[in-house]
Design goal:
The protein has about 110 residues and is mainly alpha-helical. It is built from five helices and two strands; from the N terminus they run αααβαβα.
Length: about 110
């Protein structure tokens, strides 16, 4: 919830192999759609959620990038953009976890 998926953001555009491996917007964009990890990703539940309010600009930008990567690689992930009143704060994360938790618990039953 409310993540930034481009490690270069935190390092003024700089990227080395360690950062690359920890920057989904970079490494996922470069893997083949036939890469064996795609099958692994699709066997799991992936949900990215972001509010569009205060302090969320970079999260919105990179969540949109991730949505396009997921689509291009046929990765079954849910990207959810909440309203412009939803900011980067515990209050909203609590609401988000309560909203998404039942989706994860379905598989546990």
């Amino acid at each position: 919830m409310s993540g930034v998926y481009d490690a270069k953001f935190f390092f003024d555009g700089w990227l080395n192999p360690t950062l690359y491996d920890n920057s989904p917007a970079d490494f996922l964009a470069n893997i083949s759609p036939q890469h064996p990890y795609i099958e692994i990703y699709n066997s799991r539940k992936i949900i990215l959620c972001i509010g569009q309010g205060a302090w969320e600009e970079e999260g919105v930008r990179t969540t949109a990038i991730m949505r396009e990567i997921f689509k291009a690689k046929n990765i079954k992930a849910w990207t959810d953009f909440w309203g412009y009143d939803v900011c980067h704060d515990w209050y909203w994360w609590k609401k988000q976890i309560l909203y998404f938790l039942p989706e994860f618990l379905k598989e546990a039953q």
